Amino acid sequence: MYSTMQDVQLNISRLLEHGRRVHGGSTVTTWTGEAEPHRRTFAEIGDRAAQLANALRDELGIEPGDVTATLMWNNAEHVEAYFAIPSMGAVLHTLNLRLPPEQLVWIVNHAADRVVLVNGSLLPLLAPLLPHLPTVEHIVVAGPGDRSVLDGVAPRVHEYEELIAGRPTTYPWPELDERTAAAMCYTSGTTGDPKGVVYSHRSIYLHSMQVNMAESMALTDRDTTLIVVPQFHVNAWGLPHATLMTGVNMLMPDRFLQPAPLAEMIERERPTHAAAVPTIWQGLLAEVTANPRDLSSMTHVTIGGAACPPSLMEAYDKLGVRLCHAWGMTETSPLGTMAHPPAGLGAEEEWPYRVTQGRFPAGVEARLVGPGGDHLPWDGTSAGELEVRGTWIAGAYFGGADGEAFRPEDKFSEDGWLKTGDVGIISPDGYLTLTDRAKDVIKSGGEWISSVELENALMAHPAVAEAAVVAVPDERWGERPLATVVLKEGATADYETLKTFLATEGGIAKWQLPERWAVVPAVPKTSVGKFDKKVIRRQYAEGELDVTQL
Ligand code: AMP
Fold it and tell me: How many whole angstroms from 327 Cα to the centroid of ligand 1?
């Protein structure tokens, strides 16, 4: 028997039309670095998104299925592109502006982008690449920045505002099969070539509902969310879509991502929620410690993309800002888990739940696979590789050698689950604790040492600003941990003290304590702000680190 329910396709245009009509007064505020930020209502965003779609179709000849890229900061125009492009049936491709130029070229060519919407301030990055981008026919420039760098290298250049001016503020959004491609994002490629993940209208729509749920980010029209996580990094964790759904005001930092302007933005605009990776929160903490600011409006913050050190969470607790840990990946849209403790617990009892990566929502099924391929129990102790499946989880990557979607064996199981490459344990009540990346775990004498556990314990030391631990080859044990430590400004600590601290305060077993140590000026980071352990391993191998062996 079939159901008797309507079969309305979950199209992104429905989110846009809902947001502009029902929440027309909600706002997108973009930081400008000037006396006043720029403000635009959802009603205006709706009008302008329709104008942009009209322009892309009538002036640039964009048709359904064409890939249209953005190389932009988080701002109102980027939100307009987020909705205009998929709603008209084209595919939004967000380009990561922190990637090395050769990777950007590879990605644009691989996706066959026809148009690039770019912020004026990013033209110096784009212009030198253009001779290597044969599929790109049009450049659309928004916001301030010197256009002359495009002279002689660009195909057709358009000014965003001139392009959309005077066009109709409605568009006959096509009724799309909800499985149609809406947006694409490439993985940040720490191993091998970047891989393209293509989100559907359906996956984005369902993911937006999850983002808003009380068990996730719990956002309503009473909230203002400061979206620091870039729009080029997994759709800014789904926030722009989720906000149009429920009328959440957006605060967009544009290119002002340094701790000082972020602190100013928070104090002046008083967001209730924010989303960013741990390095941003580390930087902001150092800033407000030196120059106090009122952060108290931010009652809840989503932190993820890399492990949140418990010490960071504690430090923000003291400022009245509650960090909630989340785990996800480009391949998971990204919401995988969020660490809200179960109901009915006191602060002390909540703590062990808060420091996990979080609990799986109904839409994300999870399993742990042991080294021998066996499925492990959710008993809070058995560690294995995490595999997930669900309606907003990737089932393949875009465009293999023959142009078809492809499913590499190391990324997808035979029965279609995504192999996350993350190693961890799951408690009986569904809380995930990651102990490592499969490739970062330290295999010492047949036992595993968690680099993340060592890092968290080190970062709890008052003299330590950041710490990254990697596996290095060892004749006797196969691998041993190397601890690289960034000291806080003006702080000192000798290695013996840190080692003792790990054993006593950190509760690290004796055989897991690192004997190789190095103080470094900064931990190398990937294009999306995560520890780049590949670089540390290379620096060690090439003798670039000043290593002390205890
Ligand atoms: P990306 O696709 O660039 O967002 O990277 C996804 C990867 O980031 C995951 O597979 C994890 O290894 C890591 N990651 C994301 N969130 C967390 C978290 N809360 N704790 C630890 N690692 C995380």
Answer: 6
Is residue 210 in a domain?
A: no
> Considering its fold, how many domains does the chain have in total?
1
Ligand 1 atom with minimal separation from the 358 CA:
19
Residue 456 lies in a domain: yes
Q: What is the dihedral of CA 282, 287, 289, 293, to 10 degrees?
A: -120
| Average pLDDT, integer, range 438-463 | 88
Would residue 511 count as lying in a domain?
A: yes
Cα(94) to centroid(ligand 1), Å = 19
Domain range for 472 is: 440-549
Active-site option among 63, 220, 443, 497? 443
| pLDDT attached to residue 191 | 54
pTM summary value: 0.90
> Residue 485 belongs to a domain with what CATH number?
3.30.300.30
**From the candidates 30, 94, 187, 484, which is the catalytic residue?**
187
Residues 4 and 7: their CA atoms lie apart, in Å, by 9
Ligand 1 and 187: CB distance under 6 A: yes
Residue 143 within any structural domain of the chain: no
User: Helices (DSSP H) in 238-393: which residue ranges?
Assistant: 239-246, 259-269, 278-290, 310-318, 347-354
Ligand 1 neighbourhood includes 437 CB (under 6 angstroms): yes
Residue pointed to by tokens 């997108």: 28
Determine whether the shortest distance from the Cβ of 434 to ligand 1 is under 6 A. Answer: yes
Judged against a pLDDT cut of 60, whether residue 210 lies above it is answered with yes
